[in-house]
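Quick one: co-fold with coenzyme A.
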Amino acid sequence: MQDKHPHSVPYDVPYTMADGNLENPAHLSPRIAELFPSRVVAVELTVEAPRSVLTEVELKSISHCANKRIDDFTRGRACARRGLRELGVEGFSLLSGDKREPLWPQDIVGSITHTTGFAAAVVAHRAQVQSLGIDCEVIESVGEDLWERICTPQERERLAQLSEAQARRQAALIFAAKEAFYKCQFPLSREWVGFEDVSIEIHDDGTLRIVPEVRLPVAAEWVAALRAAYHYRGQWAVTGVAAPHCS
Ligand SMILES: CC(C)(COP(=O)(O)OP(=O)(O)OC[C@H]1O[C@@H](n2cnc3c(N)ncnc32)[C@H](O)[C@@H]1OP(=O)(O)O)[C@@H](O)C(=O)NCCC(=O)NCCS
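Sure, here it is.
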């Protein structure tokens, strides 16, 4: 995207003393920040995170779950914590709502994703961005058996015309874009949107367009104003969706 991002931490630098919290291995991610408007803080993590990054209340909220779920939650919260710190918020317990949505501080918007080997979070002041969504999918895991569930018939037709490898990459992108869109729209609508309710236009310049296929719980103009972008990164397809404030 065009905006110059204010954070100048080199890509893939491991966590440093500057992060303040030496137990938190999550680090600022200029590469993910490129998927979003400026002033969005992006954080990523490609290793496990110690449970000590969680606040007592967060740990308690998840302690009834299986270890894998606790590990995923912890990686996501480690990213969120690092991002919140950048916005001047420390020690905040980021709990989940009844639809699993993260309950951010009142003046902050954000989004979290975690998948095999990768977790990320984006945050911004609500005064600057209305809502955010991020998602990451492992390309290999989005096989043809999933297309029926995640694609519209037109999207399936387009995929069928590609080579197997290319189709798998684009299917992962479609999946990730729809989930990022869902996360972005949910805090505003609090409504379900199905995979067949929108389609994804993939552009070679790294941008995406989200096209409503039915009447959505959010206004068509709102969807048209979204900024959506993607990149492929090794085994992953990563997507970001941001809702700017209406001018
Ligand atoms: C909610 C959903 C999008 C999460 O995506 P996922 O690929 O399963 O998992 P990810 O790791 O990328 O994201 C998980 C994080 O999403 C966030 N999340 C979950 N539900 C959310 C919601 N309703 N609103 C916003 N964010 C939500 C949480 O932070 C969660 O991590 P946490 O539980 O550790 O806090 C997915 O499970 C889902 O229900 N999808 C169906 C709806 C949909 O995507 N429709 C497509 C419409 S076009």
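If it helps, Residues 1-20 have pLDDT under 50 and may be disordered.
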